[in-house]
Amino acid sequence: MDIQNLIKMANQIGAFFASYPDAQEASSEIANHLKKFWAPGMRKLLLDHVDVNHGDGLDAIVLSAIHTHRRALEPSTC
Asked: Running DSSP on this structure, what letter comes out for residue 77?
């Protein structure tokens, strides 16, 4: 899958959960959604993008959720 599509999808997820009044809950829900509904390979591409390109193109809420919940999103832990 193309990283630009993954960025777009991740930002859409982030936009949905951004309406949550509790920022920590929003962050957890973004990570939970990525873990539950994204294939390990998709998560790996996204995490590699964060490592190599500092998450360029990702909304702040998504990037924060990835940093906060990185360990849970690693494909090897799924």
From this structure: G
Question: Does the pLDDT value for residue 68 go beyond 60?
Answer: yes
How far is residue 23's CA from residue 26's CA, in Å, rounded to a whole number? 5
Say which residue the tokens 């936009």 belong to: 15
SS (H, E, C) 37-61: HCCHHHHHHHHHHHHHHCCCCCCHH
Residue-wise pLDDT tens digits, 28-53: 999 999 999 999 999 999 999 999 99
Mean pLDDT, the chain, rounded, equals 96
22 Cβ contact list (under 8 Å, min separation 6)? none
Distances (CA, A) of 58 to 76, 77, 78: 23, 23, 23
